[in-house]
TrEMBL record:
Catalyzes the oxidation of 5,10-methylenetetrahydrofolate to 5,10-methenyltetrahydrofolate and then the hydrolysis of 5,10-methenyltetrahydrofolate to 10-formyltetrahydrofolate. GO terms for cellular component: cytosol. Pathway: One-carbon metabolism; tetrahydrofolate interconversion. This is Bifunctional protein FolD. It comes from Tunturiibacter gelidiferens. It holds the Pfam family THF_DHG_CYH. NADP(+) binds at G170, R171, S172, I236. It catalyses: (6R)-5,10-methylene-5,6,7,8-tetrahydrofolate + NADP(+) = (6R)-5,10-methenyltetrahydrofolate + NADPH; (6R)-5,10-methenyltetrahydrofolate + H2O = (6R)-10-formyltetrahydrofolate + H(+). InterPro entries: Aminoacid_DH-like_N_sf (IPR046346), NAD(P)-bd_dom_sf (IPR036291), THF_DH/CycHdrlase (IPR000672), THF_DH/CycHdrlase_cat_dom (IPR020630), THF_DH/CycHdrlase_NAD-bd_dom (IPR020631). One of its GO terms (molecular function) is methenyltetrahydrofolate cyclohydrolase activity. Homodimer. Its EC number is 1.5.1.5, 3.5.4.9.
Length: 315
């Protein structure tokens, strides 16, 4: 048995996101010289402070990269029909390449109907069934941002995917399923686990590449991980109990100070102690989450190109 102490590689999502954003800015400049300015419309319904922060960051990043952006802020009381009119106007606009509806929407609004109303070629979130189908069949299209970010982390870190035993825990339409499809398209051998999986550990322990998208703090523990595996932690869980903070980060003065200051710390779906047995891992925060906006920017530029018959690879 290999008892040698290994030092896992930290997969720095912030650095990779900066790299992608710099490349996107260059792509935008090249388009602008051809008279094309990519444009993103963001619809933010109501006054949720968390959603407002996300949307502001998206709009600010557009500005930094030279992408035109427009924020549309209907009141909480807007109806599904009124939203459909908004979306249809954006679908018809030549200067808008991407349409993003910030989720969650108020309960009285039919989210599914709205997401399906976005023109597939402007669906920068990659949630439209047409884009889900394109991803599945390996055609060019717009892939969901978080899974696309995972693939970029692996690719840019030079980590192998083809032939690897990949296990994805979580089967949501937004993260788990599209991640599994993208890993399969990259020739991994993929297993998808979920809440009905019997003996989860027996699957995760076989994983060379383990993706956790569960939504439960520190759920994947060290004994569930194959030594040397690559761990991709998608989870963003806010821990507000001091005892839990000590359980996840025993004797860590930085986390204790952060908790004392903010009353919470963020923990992924993988127990921090499991990272020590890995070969490489994405930290939380600063891992997968850092990529999401960069991939949205990339999708907006890809949409601008695809709509005009320019190959997305042609930078
Ligand atoms: P969902 O709640 O939609 O899906 C969670 C999945 O985990 C489900 O498929 C569920 O199974 C599975 N699951 C739940 N409990 C267990 C269990 N005990 N054993 C095995 N599987 C289980 O979450 P999302 O996919 O939207 O998000 C997952 C996490 O990723 C969250 O922490 C979220 O905050 C984070 N996230 C991070 C993003 C980022 O940018 N980094 C973006 C999006 C999400 P079942 O289907 O059977 O119910």
């Amino acid at each position: 048995m290999d008892e040698m102490k290994r030092t896992p590689t930290i997969l720095d999502g912030i650095a990779i996101a900066s790299q992608i954003k710099a490349e996107v800015a260059t792509e935008v400049q090249a388009l602008v010289t051809r008279g094309i300015t990519p444009g993103l419309a963001v619809i933010l319904v109501g006054e949720s402070p968390a959603s407002q922060i996300y949307v502001r960051t998206k709009v600010k990043t557009c500005g930094e990269l030279g992408i035109f952006s427009e924020m549309i802020t209907p009141p909480e009381s807007i109806t599904t029909d009124e939203m459909l009119v908004l979306v249809s106007a954006l679908n018809a606009r030549e200067d808008i390449d991407g349409i993003l509806i910030q989720l969650p929407l108020p309960k009285h609004v039919d989210t599914k109907r709205l997401l399906e109303a976005v023109a597939p070629d402007k669906d920068v979130d990659g949630f439209h069934p047409v884009n889900v189908g394109r991803l599945q069949s390996g055609q060019p299209g717009l892939a969901p941002c978080t899974p696309a970010g995972i693939i970029e982390i692996l690719r840019r870190s030079g980590l192998p995917v083809a032939g690897q035993n990949a296990v994805v825990v979580g089967r949501s339409d937004i993260v788990g399923k599209p991640t599994a499809v993208m890993l399969l398209n990259a020739s991994a051998t993929v297993t998808v686990c979920h809440s009905r999986t019997v003996d989860l550990g027996s699957f995760t322990r076989e994983a060379d590449l383990l993706v956790a998208a569960i939504g439960r703090a520190g759920f994947v523990t060290a004994d569930m991980v194959k030594p040397g595996a690559t761990l991709i932690d998608v989870g963003i869980n806010r821990v507000t109990d001091a005892a839990d903070v000590e359980k996840f980060f025993p004797g860590d003065p930085n986390r204790a100070a952060a908790f004392a200051k903010r009353g919470s710390v963020v923990v992924g779906d993988i127990h921090p102690a499991a990272f020590a047995v890995s070969g490489a891992y994405t930290p939380v925060p600063g891992g997968v989450g850092a990529l999401t906006i960069a991939m949205l920017m990339q999708n907006t530029v890809t949409a601008a190109k695809l709509r005009r018959g320019i190959s997305p690879g042609n930078k």
